Amino acid sequence: MKKYISIFFTLFIVLPSMVFAQEEEQNLPYGRFIRDSVMLGEEIQYTLRYEHSPEEEVLFPDSTFNFEPFELLHKKNFNTRTLGNVSIDCVIYSLATYEIDSVYELGLPVLRRGSEKTDTLYAYLDGVFLKEMIPVVSDTTTVIVDANFLDLKTQFNTPMLVLILGFLLLAVMVFYAVFGNKFRENWRKKKIQKHYNNFRSQFDIYLEKELDSKTTEEAVAIWKAYLSKVSHQDIQPLTSKETGKILKSDQLEKKLKILDRVIYSGFGGEEAKPVLKYLNEIATKGYAYEMVNNPDKPPFVLDMTVEVEVQEKK
Predict the structure, then answer these.
(1) In whole angstroms, what is the distance from residue 305 CA to residue 284 CA?
(2) Are residues 36 and 118 in the same domain?
């Protein structure tokens, strides 16, 4: 008899505890993904539902909750529905994950506030698989070589060309600003030297040959052409008197009149040779004067030539 009383007492204590535990288990939140697989960055919905008594206040996770390994995109709340003595709350979460794993699990909590205590109830974990976009290649897979090349059209790189041209233009401008004056001066002197060399190559011929009326006239024409360039004065059509006046030399006027007599009379060629040598000296002085780089210098005249040569020697 005592044995039966002991068994009955044990069942009386244990059975209510089992029923109570089963009721607690049934009151856990329900959390599920809408599908069983997801790709990286793809949106997936997770439904969290909880049934409770109307007197209880429940709170669902919001944007401040850590949904790891997922990130919350947005959520949709549904109004509470009450049927009899049971109220139902539901929220659908839109999630996405950017972590690489084979399986992702999630079980969200619900905060329940009753009249006597506050509880946090978690839904059972629910998982989704990672959907791989690139299939896993096995060790036995054979690699096929595709040697069919496609011809690509060559596209001209216009911005690079503009950049290179701009750089070259800038380099030329800098180079010209630094060395421009020196190059211009060298170029000016080369031109003067070239004109003088051309004059000497022609005029020296008449210094070595016998002179008559024709050759004397040719020599004077060559000299006047060169001195016109040097003095920047057109003395080519001038008479001997006018030439001596422009160049400010009475001696030059007398020497040129000797040549006039040879040209017009045809006699006195032996007198023309020393005069041509004198004209050659004047041309050399004019060359030296022209080599001086001074844009403000006056036109070449014979009474200034000696002074200019002295300045150059200094």
Answers:
(1) 10
(2) yes
Q: Report how many domains make up the chain.
A: 2
181 sits in which H/E element? helix 158-208
Report the distance separating Cα 204 and Cα 200, nearest Å.
6
What is d(CA 118, CA 110) in angstroms, rounded to the nearest whole number? 11
Distance CA 255, CA 306 (A): 19
Beta bridge partners of residue 51, listed in sequence order: 88
Q: Which two tokens stand for residue 243?
A: 């030439």
**CA 191, CA 169: separation in Å to the nearest integer?**
27
Q: Which amino acid is at 2?
A: K
pTM exceeding the 0.70 threshold for the entire prediction: no
CATH number at residue 62: 2.60.40.740
Asked whether residue 243 falls in the same domain as residue 307, the answer is: yes
Helix (H) or strand (E) holding 120: strand 118-122
Q: How far is it, in rounded angstroms, from Cα 216 to Cα 267?
A: 11
One pLDDT digit (tens) per residue for the chain, 314 residues: 444 444 444 443 434 444 344 444 458 999 999 999 999 989 999 999 999 888 888 999 999 999 999 999 999 999 999 998 999 999 999 999 998 888 999 999 999 887 678 889 999 999 999 987 766 556 666 766 666 777 777 778 888 889 999 999 988 888 877 777 787 888 888 888 998 999 999 999 988 888 888 888 898 999 989 988 888 888 888 888 888 888 888 888 888 888 888 888 878 778 888 888 999 998 898 888 888 767 667 777 776 544 434 334 33
φ/ψ (deg, to 5) at 81? -110, 135
Q: Cα–Cα distance between 110 and 28 in angstroms, integer? A: 9
Alpha carbons within 13 angstroms on the beta-carbon side of residue 134 total 2
Residue identified by tokens 């001596």 is: 244
**C-alpha–C-alpha distance, residues 200 and 103, integer Å:** 102
| CA–CA dist 299, 235 (Å, integer) | 12
